[in-house]
Design goal:
Elements: H1 3-26, H2 33-45, H3 56-59, E1 75-79, E2 89-97, E3 107-115, E4 121-129, E5 134-142, E6 149-150, H4 152-159, H5 163-185, E7 199-202
Parallel strand pairs: 5-7
Antiparallel strand pairs: 1-2, 2-3, 3-4, 4-5, 5-6
Length: 207
Amino acid sequence: MNKKMFYTLSIGAFLIMLLPLAFIFLKPRYSNVFEEIYHDEYHHTVGPWLSPTASTLESLPDMKKKRTRGLLYGVTGGNYKKNSLPKNIHSINYVFEYPDNELGNGNVLIVINVDLPNSDILKVEYMYQHQSNQLIQKIRIFSDDYKQEYPVEQYITQNKLDVKVYTEIANDILKNKLISDWRSAYPSQFSVENWGNVKMISENAID
């Protein structure tokens, strides 16, 4: 073996050894788990029209399959199957907004609808803005058919509702169901206990 071939093989072997490190450094690094979800949904949604692929969320066994692909006015979403919902949960939904069909300036809204004892619905919304470090939690209260929305403070007072019980239920589902499901299908940098650089802020929850 001449020197030239030896050097060529040595350089080739060295580059092969560097490949795993290159994949580590080139892999997108997101600041929190909601950025992972937001980016993944976008890249699958705007992928090739002739060969669409399911997003990570849609690939979860408990998620419904979408009837159509792509964005409709910059919006897409996903829903959990009825038979997969935890006890006393009416529905769980994801809504993604990508203004002008672009990745920037959008958001992901996660909605957990909890059944109240009188058949009304307490909606717990988690809004994450792209590249934010805040997950805004907001509660809304509806009739069982969603046709009427009640003023939150008035409803709580009149019905002597302990809202904290229901927000804790929703928070537990977000962590131990939704985040856990996400991690089962996506090589996440984060865990159910460590969501990354994000803080939950309660917008109108009342103790």
